[in-house]
Amino acid sequence: MPIIAHQKITPRKNTMVKRKETREEKRISSLSPTLNFMVKAVRHAGASLVRDFREISQLQVSRKGPGDFVTNADLFTEKKLVEFIKKTRPNDAILSEECGEVPAQNASPYTWVMDPIDGTNNFLHAIPFFAISLALMRGDEVIAGVIYNPVTNELYYAEKGQGAFLMTPTGDVRLRVSGRKKLEESMVATNSYALRTVNGLTDRIINNPFCFRCVGSTALALAQVAAGQLDVFFDCRCHIWDLAAGYLLVQEAGGIVQTWNGEKDMGSILKDNGVLATTLDMREKILNFINPKEKTCKKKKKSV
Ligand code: 2AM
Ligand code: CA
User: Fold this and answer.
1) Prediction pTM value
2) Residue of the nearest CA to atom 14 in ligand 1?
3) Quick check: CB of 255 below 6 Å from ligand 1?
4) Complete domains list, the chain, with CATH
């Protein structure tokens, strides 16, 4: 409609009131751009996992059975993560437990390593000890990692050289590995794979002097080592998507991650030489206890 010269135009009031940022959103936007992006990615992907977990808890899973239901939840979470990453970082490679490898384009040196549900069996049994694990690698080096349990809302994050943190409703807490020095006072965890690979280890654990747990999620166990809740986590046959984010978290919290023979690079850890995440004080004590000379570690099927 033409505007008549003398017509007074009063600007319309802007009815779109900008929503105030929540305290949590403010904190996320104060992170580095990389971590900010990663936290948003896992939160985005985790929303549907919470709904799926509730259905499993209430036994409302489809007639096809919980196995299929979990596979679908795994795939759907992965799809959301991949889509989220591809939208902003289309050139980077992706390495995931479910979809395998999406190669880099235009010589990007970055790889996103993800496990959409680490702790699948816990998820399947409605035990809220599972997590999305997301790591960013530049070449062979893990430069950032996030581990997120969407049910408990625990979110652990680390960036190379910047420390490891747990996001909590009242602020972020810097993580430090445990200060305990005595094996008999410590909390030691594994998954069942290690127990199957060292002769006599199960017997020694039954008669052990420390608290022992089989946990079912490598990623969360590593986060708990970083947080000083677990003093030791050891296992065999880790895959890169189980390990990458937690590997950085433990190191940034002052701990060590190595093979049972002492090699600290991730390549060696992934080559079936066992993984050990602990503190400097506890390292020799637990290695003497495990006695890896008795190890009969079998090659894992997936070779990544
Ligand atoms: P997942 O839940 O993603 O399968 C305990 O089972 C831990 O070991 C979990 O972190 C689990 O990852 C991982 N895991 C499952 N199958 C495995 C296998 N064949 N070899 C090594 N780790 C495995
Ligand atoms: Ca896994």
Assistant:
1) 0.90
2) 238
3) no
4) 23-174 (3.30.540.10), 183-290 (3.40.190.80)
SS3 for 272?
coil
- Cβ(295) to ligand 1 under 6 A? no
Looking at the CA of 216, which ligand is closest? 1
- 52 Cα: distance to centroid of ligand 1 (angstroms): 20
CA distances from 37 to 50, 156, 282 (A): 20, 14, 35
Residues 67-125 have pLDDT tens digits of: 788 888 999 999 999 999 999 999 999 999 878 899 999 999 999 999 999 999 999 99
Q: Among 118, 130, 273, which is best to mutate for testing ligand 1, by the most ligand atoms less than 8 A from CB?
A: 118
Distance set, CA 276 to CA 218, 286, 292 (Å): 11, 9, 11
Structure tokens at 154: 């625990």
CB pairs under 8 A, 24+ apart, for 256-260? 256/280, 256/283, 257/222, 258/283, 260/234, 260/287, 260/290, 260/292, 260/295
Helices (H) and strands (E) in the chain, counts: 10, 13
Stretch among 20-29, 86-95, 97-106, 140-149 having the lowest mean pLDDT: 20-29
Dig out the tokens for 33 from the structure: 């751009």
Residue 145 confidence (pLDDT) above 90: yes
Amino acid 1: pLDDT: 42
